């Protein structure tokens, strides 16, 4: 997969477009970040060339967004988004325009979301081209829509979440008229796909400003729409935001999500993940962390086998971080969480999840029938191995014989007659 464009790759694309007689400018976020003297992760090019003309100029071009005037130029492992100056046709669904019309650079600027994202830059003339007052708003530290906010948000309701993300990321305030429009139109965010909402939340939660983002979402009425399970209970929401604030400095999105959702039931977390279209791995991580959220009270003293099973999960370091936050909230200190961390540090990594000394094949060779009891014996044997009460195969086989005999002596399980 190609990396985002760096400045030199985008400049190469721009120069070639210019040599072919086209207008070409840097556009959007890269201009904003340059003026703020911030690192830029990606460079976009805007041009009067159509996607078909772009494709004719470069060897490797993807036209997957051509109907919206977008082409992706590939060079040396990087991709440069090249967008034709355009204006969006009316939006029927609050998510995407029904089509586009190619226009001038000025008209293109006027259809963009926020003034700070609506500027162009000519790197050859070293000139900022600002039709929307973006440079002034950068100086004022303001997030303001280009044109009437109600219209801009109706074109794409996701822009309401983007306003929050830009505000907290840049340390800006949202213009009062823009904020009022968000409060009014917040319920319409339900028209946006869960995947797009999840992407915006993930970007917010991956930053050190994650707690501020959650508070602003609540203040603007957006949290009620995208995280209603939490906001319905005022105390639950307050505790969730406090946990996010406590872990935000780690800039770990899984940890921040777990801090946010940790008090929800497993069923509620799974429903959210389905709604957001997130991965099963993300779902499993969040459910594991939610189940273990309050084990800080007992982790240092729990049976060794249970502690090792927690340690075997790749999210165990995140769990300890949550324990510390949870314990400090409850007691003002983190003594038990520190004991759990010290216990984990004292366990050899090879002893956390060692190969089993005895397998199901061994138990069947001893005469055990396949079924639930065989599984129970295997688990009991592995627990004993993790507890370090057995350490050799001979000891494990002897214990297996004892457990098998005990199973044979146990009374049969009553069967339910469903007839």
Report on the architecture of this protein.
- With 419 residues, this protein is α/β, with parallel strands linked by helices.
- The protein folds into three domains: 1-140, 2-Layer Sandwich (Beta Polymerase, domain 2), CATH 3.30.460.10; 141-247, cca-adding enzyme, domain 2; 360-409, no CATH class.
- 52% of the residues lie in helices and 11% in strands.
- A hairpin with a 4-residue loop joins strand 4 (61-65) and strand 5 (70-75).
- The N and C termini lie far apart (58 Å).
Layout of secondary structure:
Blueprint: E1 3-4, H1 7-19, E2 24-27, H2 29-35, E3 44-47, H3 51-57, E4 61-65, E5 70-75, E6 78-84, E7 86-88, E8 100-102, H4 105-110, E9 120-122, E10 127-129, H5 134-140, E11 142-143, H6 149-155, H7 158-170, E12 173-174, H8 176-185, H9 194-205, H10 210-219, H11 223-226, H12 228-231, H13 234-247, H14 253-261, H15 266-276, H16 280-291, H17 304-311, H18 316-331, H19 335-345, H20 360-365, H21 372-386, H22 393-409
Parallel strand pairs: 1-6, 3-6, 11-12
Antiparallel strand pairs: 2-3, 2-9, 4-5, 5-6, 7-8, 9-10
